[in-house]
Structures are given as C-alpha cells and as structure tokens.
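Input structure tokens:
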C-alpha cells in the first residue's frame, strides 16, 4: 500500500511539474485592449455600440452609396481578412466590414450565445445602427452562413449575395484546424483559454491555405494577437460548443437574390462538395471554383478571387 501511495505521489508530482513547464512555455496573458487597438484599429477603423457591445468596424469608399457591400469574416478571424479586397473595391464601391462579437476587437456576447441565429440578429442591429436599408452581403465560412441566413430572414435588405466557402449544410471536414480540434476536447479546451501556443495559430492558418508558403509571420501574428484580446479565447471555445439549427439549410432554396458562390477547390474544412449543394439549391447563382486555393480565397488568392467578385458586381446598379 505504501508503495502504491509512493507511485501515485510521484506520478502527480511529475504531472504538476509538466503542467508548470507547459504553462511557462506556452501560457500567454491577454493583451490589453488599448494595445491591440493601437496596432489593429488605426484609421479608418471606428467603434459603435450595438446592444451594449462595442463593435469594431470599417466603412470605406463612397459613403454616399446607398447600397454598400457588407463583408463578414469567419470563425477565429477578423475584418482584416478582407483587407486586400477592400483596397480594390473601395475605389468604386462602399465597403463595410465588422469584427463579429468574440473576434477581433469587438466585445464578446454578454450572454455567451454564439449561435448563427444570434449573429444574424447582431448583423441586423449593426446595419440598422448604420442606417443601411439595402446591401450586397457576403461572407466567408461562418460569415457566409450568417450572410445567407440574413438574406433568408431579411430579403428586402439584400440586393445580391456573395458566399465564400460558406458554412450551412451538414459537412464532414477533410481536415480540421488544430485550434478547432483543441477547442472541442473536454478539459483540454478549458486550458486553451490560458495556454495558447503560437504554433497552434500558425498550424490552423496553414490548414486552411492550399499554399502554405503564403502564411507569413505578419499574418500569423495578427491572428494570434487578436486571439489574445480579453474574452476572445473564451468566446472561441463557447462558439465551437454551440449546437446550431441543423435544419436551417432548408431555407436556402427560398433565397431568390443573385448569388455568387465562390469556393477554393482545395478547401479541406468545408469541401467543394458543399459548394455544389449551394449551386443546386440556389435558383439564381453564379458558381466559381478556384483551383489551387483553400478555405480563405480572399486572403490566399485575393486578385484571382476578386476577379469573380468584380465581374459579379459589374451589372449592379448602385444608386
């Protein structure tokens, strides 16, 4: 009995020492919000309160245009994912993008409800706050899911829709980003809120790119540092714990707005087979698949992906 007690004591001591080493090497404190704002909220960034949530957004281009393009990022990302697109689009169009609650520099949801339905309501409140009556709405991944749910719920507010490797249909990922996998593991996911190795961010970005060479240090730093905004790591875990309405995709055939379906052929997170489901169910769509591109075409191949967007928008009557 004494021998067993000694073995257990030694085992727990080793586990404790290992935990301290891991925490020392990979534990990161939250980065103060003011410090992150100084780096990632330079002009033309602004903030607005929406239902008590301080929202980081950018509104660029011709602000007199009454039908702006609204772009929504995906899980773990921020409005910066559309930087390259916006640099080009803002010369001809008005472009609005925001950090969703729990990501980037926007506050988390106070009640920690990260369902697509709640995000859709948030986008409606944000656009109402901005006085937007009609828009072209687009989104990537989670943002794409929000975009089509918004269009289905508020059809009179949407002129056209752009879906970029959008979520919505049931799917089985060919490969999940490491951060997604960690955030789904019981017990370990709670440690993720305090121990967040930088290599997890880099590995997760590389997972959604077809060409890993395009994942720069600057890109990794941005994703990693914005993850360390106070409250964002908790929000990331909470978001991946949400069970969304699995039947919501049945609304998709009712969406009549002209839609661009834009997909990376090498998307391992939401495979191109799901793009074909949108193509089959949306009655008025343009379907573009980009070769040698992964889950985030607007980041990985901005010029190639933007060609399809501009072509889609050319016949748009902005008034």
């Amino acid at each position: 009995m004494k021998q067993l007690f000694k073995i257990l004591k030694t085992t727990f001591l080793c586990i404790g020492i290992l935990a301290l080493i891991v925490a020392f090497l990979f534990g990161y404190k939250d980065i103060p919000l003011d410090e992150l704002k100084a780096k990632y909220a330079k002009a033309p960034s602004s903030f607005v309160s929406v239902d008590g949530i301080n929202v980081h957004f950018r509104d660029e281009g011709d602000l007199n245009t009454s039908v702006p393009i609204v772009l929504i990022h995906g899980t773990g990302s921020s409005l910066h994912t559309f930087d390259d697109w916006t640099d080009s689009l803002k010369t001809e169009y008005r472009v609005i993008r925001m950090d969703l609650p729990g990501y980037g520099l926007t506050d988390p949801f106070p009640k920690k409800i990260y369902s697509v339905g709640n995000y859709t309501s948030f986008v409606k409140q944000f656009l109402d706050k901005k006085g937007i009556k009609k828009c072209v709405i687009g989104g990537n991944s989670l943002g794409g899911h929000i975009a089509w749910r918004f269009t289905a719920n508020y059809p009179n507010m949407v002129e056209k829709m752009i879906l970029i490797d959008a979520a919505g249909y049931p799917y089985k990922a060919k490969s999940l980003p490491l951060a997604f996998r960690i955030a789904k593991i019981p017990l370990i996911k709670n440690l993720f809120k305090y121990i967040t190795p930088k290599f997890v961010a880099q590995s997760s970005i590389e997972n959604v790119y077809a060409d890993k060479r395009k994942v720069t240090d600057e890109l990794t730093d941005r994703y990693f540092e914005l993850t360390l905004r106070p409250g964002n790591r908790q929000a990331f875990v909470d978001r991946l714990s949400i069970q969304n309405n699995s039947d919501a995709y049945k609304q998709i055939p009712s969406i009549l707005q002209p839609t661009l379906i834009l997909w990376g052929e090498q998307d391992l997170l939401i495979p191109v087979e799901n793009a074909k489901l949108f193509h089959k169910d949306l009655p008025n769509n343009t379907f573009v698949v980009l070769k040698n591109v992964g889950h985030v075409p607007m980041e990985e191949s901005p010029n190639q992906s933007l060609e399809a967007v501009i072509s889609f928008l050319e016949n748009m009557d902005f008034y």
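The first strand starts at residue 45 and ends at 50. The radius of gyration is 21 Å.
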